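Checklist before submission:
- one chain only
- standard amino acids only
- sequence pasted in full

Submission:
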Amino acid sequence: MGSFQIDLSGQVAVVTGAAREIGRAIALALARSGAAVCAVDVNPDRLDETIHLIEGEGRRALGWTGDVSNRFQVAALIEATRDAFDGLHIVVNATTADKRAALLALDEYDWRRALEISLTGAFFCTQLAARVMADEGGGAIVNVLTPVGPLLTASEAAPLATSQAGLLGLTRQAARELLGHGVRVNAVCAGTSAETPGTHQVSPDDIAAAALFLCSPAARVITGQMLVVDGGSTLL
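Returned file contents:
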């Protein structure tokens, strides 16, 4: 991420979807900036890789294997994070379920499951974490979106498009309601640029840099916003 530097020493962060490329890059960026990180995912093997990378750089990390669409598991992971690191200041919701099927053939279970994971999971993490943050003087929440939904449509992507549009709505509404509690809520729209002249291919580190900025004191007056990181592809 070049010379981009943020100091998050003493901060505690939760990152969901941390076994996937973007979630892992965000967890690493937060840890490298000094935050203690609870990395969350349903895939224990790949989550172990994330923890190994963070601890390999001498940073503090906790792995939590669980399903963010389960309210009780979210409550447990937040308490485990507070017990391990004595606080909670940052949450990044980077879990996405992409169930692809034509609208006319889409299975009800796949529809519901995609919304439960991508949208309801973010709601649980936001609500339960924000209660802690409000009591402890504030914090920052960042939701990681795909362009499908807020900006674009895609083939056979009704669950993804709907969940991501809903997640943007949740971002803005949560930002409004939590403003008086010192909790900022923003979104990063993570694009993957097409191979088109004039655009730049977006990497997970690019998304992580944007999320890191929004989590940091440098963004202390920014809330309710969506930062699009797509190399310019949505301009075409």
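Reviewer check: DSSP finds six helices and seven strands in the chain.
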